[in-house]
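User: Please run a holo structure prediction.
Assistant: Happy to. Please share the sequence and the ligand.
User: Here you go; the ligand is zinc ion.
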Amino acid sequence: MCETAFLQCIQPACRATFALNAPIYECSKCRALLDVAYDWNRLTPPSTLQAFEKRWATRSNPIDFSGVWRFRDLLPFAKDADLVTIGEGQTILQTPDTAAMSLPLRPGNLHLQYEGMNPSGSFKDNGMTAAFTMARMLGKQRVGCASTGNTSASLAMYASLTRLPNGQPMRGVVFVGAGKIAFGKLSQALDYGALTLQIDGDFDACMARVREAADRIGLYLMNSVNPFRLEGQKTIMYRILEGLRWQVPDWIVVPGGNLGNTSAFGKAWIELKQLGLVSRIPRLAVINAAGANTLYELYTRRGVRWNNGNWDCDTVCNHYDEMTKQGRKASTIATAIEIARPVNLSKALRALDAMNGVVCEVTDDEILEEKALVGRHGFGCEPASAASVAGLRQLLANGTIDRDARVVCILTGHALKDPDATVKYHTGIDTKGVTVSPGASNPTGRHANLPIRVADNIDEICRAIESSS
Ligand SMILES: *Cc1c(COP(=O)(O)O)cnc(C)c1O
Ligand SMILES: [Zn+2]
C-alpha cells in the first residue's frame, strides 16, 4: 500500500483517518462516509492537465490506454503493477446539433459525454476498474453489489476477468430486485457468470441485504459506498476536460440515482481546484426521476444543504420515515435511477455545495421523449441517461441555465441496455417480440417510429417504401 493515500472521514468535525486497506465503508468513530484522500505534498501530480496528453503516445501500455488510468496521477492509491484494467473509459464527448435537438443553446455548446461506450456499456466500468484494483490488493475472493442492473453487469464482467495475485479467480455476487432490472443488464450478469441473487424486493432492500452480507461473510462491497469506485468515476470529468481541450464547461448535467457520480464529480473538481489544475469549477445539475426524487425533495423542496457537514439529519430521517409509513417505493421507467435511499446522499450534498448545484425532477414521459430525440440524432442511451437532457430542457426553460452556457450532459448507459423500453416507446406494445399489426398499437410518443407490416410481396414492399417519403 502507498502511505501517501489513506481513507478519511468526510465529516469536517471528525476527519478521522484510516489505513487504505482498512476493511470499512464508513467512519468507525462517527459513521460518516469515507473518502480516499491523498497527501498531495508528498506526491507529484502534473502541473498542467495538458501533461496527460503525453500518454496518448504510449497507448500500447494498457494503463496509458485506459481512460481511467491514464489519469492515475489524480487517483494515486495503487502501484502501476496493481492496476486492473480492460481498456475502460474509451468514451467520446459528442456535440449534437442543438437546433436539431430543439434546445435554445448556442450551436456547438451542447455536449453529450457518451459513457455507453464502456466495455460493459455503462459508466460503471470507470468505478469498477478502481474498486477491483483495491479488491485484488486486499486479496478479496468474493465481491458483491446490490444493483439496478449496470453495477451488476460491470461487476460480473470485471470478476470474470480478474485473478488474484495467487492466480485464484474472483467470485462476483450480485443482488438484484426481482423484476426490477432491464433485460440487457440481467443478461450480462448471467453471461459473465456472476452468482445472481434475485431478491424479492427493490433496490433499497438489496442494498440493505448486501451490506449485511458484507458484515457477516466478508463479501467485499462494490457499490458506490465503496470510496474507490468514486475515485475511478472522477475520470469522467477529466475526459470531459480533455474533450474540451482542457477548457472548463459551465454546467455538468447528470442523472442522480445512488449519487455516486454526483459525489465523484464534486470530489474531482474540488481536487482539481486545490491542485491549481483548473481556475474555476463548473456548476452541477443533478436530475432525479419524479418517481425516485429523494434528492429533489430534500435539496430543492426542503432546503437540506451540506452546511459544512452539519446537514439536517432530522429532515432526511423524517422524509425516509414518511416514505416507510406510506409504503412509498421508488418507481420509474428509468430503472437505473429507481432508488429512494441514495447511499451517497451526504457526499452528494458536499458536491452540490462545491459546484453551486441545482437538483430537478423529470417525469417518465419527459425522459422517454428525450431518449428518443437523442437516438434520432444518432447517439442513443438508456432511459436513465436521458434524464440529463430532460433536466437540461427544464433548466433552460426556467432560466437557470443560460442559452450561452457550455453544457455537458452525461449519457450514463448504452441504448441497448433496455431495448424493451425503446420498442415500447416506438410501438406502444409492451410484450417482447410481438409483430406489430397496423392499428394494433397506439404509440403516443412525439418521435415514435412505428414499424410497418408488409406482406412478403415485392410490389407491396416497394409501395410501402415509396409512400413513406
Ligand atoms: C448507475 C446508473 C445511474 C445512477 O448513477 P449514480 O451514480 O448511482 O447516481 C444512472 N444511469 C445509469 C445508466 C446507471 O447505470
Ligand atoms: Zn468520522
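DSSP finds 15 helices and 13 strands in the chain.
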